[in-house]
């Protein structure tokens, strides 16, 4: 079974600074998908960024980028120019290619990292 | 605004009550999901419907009963719940077998069992 580990329960960043959230995962599969979701106090889980394992290029979405190291099974999220609205709980998630074909798109979540942004 | 709509947003019920949570999406997605989330914890998958058929049941107690009347609607029927069932219940949808497509989540229903 796949597992996802987020080793930082809480992180703090000063407004306009850069912060990196770490995520590692364990899998024996070669094809899979990785996601970062953000959950602010408003509760909705919002997709921040996604990465397909077969793509070597790191995904980027505006101020959000990832450092995907497939051999190391690492998928960190970098937030540049942090804003107060970035304060939230961030979840790293894994989705198996093989399991998705048979059972639907099941996500395996990490424990989450609470990000606080200081003004 | 979320494209997955959940009602009600808050629900307080006694252990002997019967209630239902509702989830609706109009994005043409063919997979829908129920998650349970405790405070400061990740969501736990409960059920997956794919093309209106139950494809995953994560050993959820029978006091939770899912229903997918059509491709846009997903219900979760609740009966004889326990205090430990108090949680945020999230609904999500995705394009079915479109592997590249992510799940879209609703705002959730905050459930409190008295």
Q: What can you tell me about this protein's structure?
A:
The complex is a heterodimer of chains A (119) and B (114). Chain A has one helix spanning 97-103; strands spanning 3-5, 10-14, 19-21, 24-26, 32-39, 46-52, 60-61, 64-69, 74-79, 88-96, 107-109, 113-118. By secondary structure, chain A is mainly β. In chain A, strands 2, 5, 6, 10, 11 and 12 form a six-stranded mixed beta sheet that branches. In chain A, strands 3-9-8-7 form a four-stranded antiparallel beta sheet, with no helix packed on it. In chain B, the strands form two sheets. In chain B, strands 2, 4, 5, 6, 9, 10 and 11 form a seven-stranded mixed beta sheet that branches. The radius of gyration of chain B is 13 Å and the shape is globular. The mean pLDDT of chain B is 91. The chains are: A mainly beta (119), B mainly beta (114). The A-B interface holds A 33, 35, 37, 42-47, 50, 52, 89, 91, 95, 97, 100-101, 103-107, 109-112, 114 and B 2, 31, 33, 40-43, 45, 48-50, 55-56, 88, 90, 92, 94, 96-97, 99-108, 110.
Relevant terms:
heterodimer, A: 119 residues, mainly beta, 6-stranded mixed beta sheet, 4-stranded antiparallel beta sheet, 6% helix, 51% strand, B: 114 residues, 7-stranded mixed beta sheet, 11 strands, globular
